[in-house]
Amino acid sequence: MWLTEKFGLSVPVVGAPMANVSGGRLTAAISAAGGLGMLGAGSAVSAEWIRTEGAIAAAAGKPYGIGLMAWSVADHPEHLEAVLDLRPALVSLSFGDYTPYVGTLHEAGIVVATQAGTVADAREAVDAGVDVIVARGAEAGGHGRNAVATLPLLQAILDLTDVPVLAGGGISGPRGLAAVLAAGAVGGWIGTAFLTCVEAQTKEPARRRILEADETDTVYGTVFDAASRAGWPDEFGGRALRNAFFDTWEGHEEELKTQDAAHDDYVDGTRAADPARASIYAGQGVGALTGRPTAAEVLTGFASYGDYLRAALNGGSK
Ligand SMILES: Cc1cc2nc3c(=O)[nH]c(=O)nc-3n(C[C@H](O)[C@H](O)[C@H](O)COP(=O)(O)O)c2cc1C
Question: Which residues form the signal peptide (predicted)?
Answer without folding.
Answer: none
